[in-house]
Amino acid sequence: MLPVLTKSPTRLYLGGLMFFWGIVNMCMGFVHSYEALVALRFLLGVFEAGVMPGIVYLTSMYYKRHEFQTRMSFFFCSTLVGGAFGGLLAYAIAHMGGLAGLAAWRWIFIVEGAATAIVSWCAAFLIVDWPEQCQFLNPDEIALLKKRLADDGADIARMDTLNAHACKLILSDWKIWLGSLIYMGVGITGYSTTFFMPTILKEFGWTVQSAQVHTIPVYAVCAVGMLVAAWASGRVRHRYGFVMVGVVISTFGYGVLLSQSTSPLSAYPSSEAKYAAIFLAALGGYISMPLALAWLSNNLSGHWKRAFGSGIQVTVGNLAGVVASNIFIERESPAYKTGYGVALAMTWIGGLAATALWVLLRRENRLREGGVLDERLAGATGDEMENMGDHHPAFRFTL
After folding, report:
1. How far apart are the C-alpha atoms of 395 and 376, rounded to whole Å?
2. Transmembrane residues, as ranges (predicted)?
3. What angle do CA 170, 173, 177 make, to 5 degrees?
4. Could you give the angle at the alpha carbon of 163 between the alpha carbons of 159 and 168, nearest 5°?
5. Burial tier of 371 (Cβ tally within 10 Å: 0-12, 13-18, 19+)
6. What pTM was estimated for this model as a whole?
7. Under CATH, which number does the domain 2-154+166-391 receive?
8. What gap in Å lies between CA 237 and CA 228, rounded to an integer?
9. Scanning 252, 277, 309, 329, which has the fewest C-beta atoms within 10 Å of its C-beta?
10. What pLDDT shows up at residue 89?
């Protein structure tokens, strides 16, 4: 994915992935065997895999490190808007069952896949290319953009060549692996919300339609909270504290949900409190997720380092989706002890990884400011010195 992304026009690369994802999604509405469904699901993952890291990487090439967070949160708001209305759309499409002799579930795949494919054509004209190739900026504006990024440390910590030394710096970088663990941990809430919130709300005694409607306020509050946290984080140029605010908010939400009685006689009277707890659990997760992506990207410098770092983080983070899809066990309804317990534990895995990253970054900054790590320059060849990325001792990390 990454070599193709760096060598291709991004509008064609990202737009193409979206288009083929939509076509494959449409095809899932016509399957007649389990084997065909598995093959299409595999292709769906192939085309989806490059989208998120590609967007993160491309966006980071236009903004300074402390401007990036707000842009990431605006991007994540699209997932919240999709979550808010996707369920209602699916509910409406379900009434198409029998049309053209196709079952309702087939129409969900066909309509949503076709919509994605159509939108991808528009995206191919709207997505920007790399700063050096973009056509909406004049030469003076491109020069200003490069100067702003250079002033933010981009010129000091470059990694423009992918060689054995660069690969070693990338794969041995603890920031990438801790950042990936953070994203995986706090990301469990986002996946759980997407997969199971309508089901959980239905257990409160609401109808399917009412449960779908009640998801909309949750997504709306999460969107507002995410943007406020992003603005505040960018304003004070700090990430760790806001990640932990999200972790603590989710902890309160999961705590309430775990404290509910498993008795069928007492499961439903506290639906209002449990509904409020869903707000807290989701809000905390959605505050932390874009912060985790932006925080790692802020602390990776050089084209190849940032590209591979974003790819690794999203790949590892997506393991949360595997976990989330298997922890809400039907026989545990409505308490879902395993689901809420595992989600809480993974949230704190992300929180502990964030704490470790903050401690190590702070220590690294102190060593660099004291000149202790200048020895890296003395032992490096000229090519290595110009290709160190954020390993260069002059680079300073965002806490």
Report:
1. 12
2. 12-32, 38-60, 72-93, 105-128, 176-196, 216-233, 240-257, 277-296, 308-329, 341-361
3. 105
4. 85
5. exposed
6. 0.84
7. 1.20.1250.20
8. 14
9. 329
10. 75
CA-CA distance, 325 to 310, in Å (whole number)? Answer: 23
Nearest Cα to 291, choosing from 324, 244, 332, 323? 244
The reply to whether omega before 334 is within 30° of 0 (cis) is yes
CA distances for 129 relative to 12, 55, 59, 309, angstroms: 9, 11, 10, 20
**Number of CB atoms found within 10 A of residue 103's CB:** 13
- Cα end-to-end span (Å), the chain: 29
CA distance 111 to 287: 31
- DSSP letter for 380, please: S
Residue 296's H or E segment, with its range, is: helix 271-298
Three-state secondary structure along 100-137? HHCCHHHHHHHHHHHHHHHHHHHHHHHCCCCCCCCCCC
Identify the residue whose tokens are 């209002």.
272
**What tokens were used for 398?**
């965002």
238 in Cβ contact with 248 (< 8 Å): no
Q: Give the residue from 282, 255, 263, 276 showing the smallest Cα distance to 334.
A: 263
* DSSP secondary structure letter of residue 328: S
* Cα 23 to Cα 201: distance, rounded to the nearest angstrom: 32
pLDDT value at position 266? 47
Whose tokens are 């925080």? That residue is 295
Q: Which two tokens stand for residue 50?
A: 């490059």
Residue carrying the six token digits 């699916």 = 90
Q: Going residue by residue through the chain (399 aa), what tens digit of pLDDT does each one get?
A: 555 555 667 778 888 888 999 999 999 989 888 889 889 988 988 888 788 878 877 887 788 777 777 888 888 787 777 777 776 776 777 777 777 778 877 888 888 889 888 988 888 778 877 777 777 778 888 888 777 877 766 667 777 778 888 888 889 999 999 999 999 999 898 888 777 777 777 777 776 667 777 788 888 888 899 889 988 988 888 999 999 999 999 999 999 888 875 544 444 446 778 888 889 999 999 999 989 988 998 898 877 888 888 888 888 888 888 888 888 888 887 788 898 999 999 999 999 999 999 999 999 999 988 888 877 777 667 677 777 878 888 888 888
The tokens for 231 are 């603005």
Residues 6+ apart with CB under 8 A from 369: 396
Radius of gyration of the chain (CA): 23
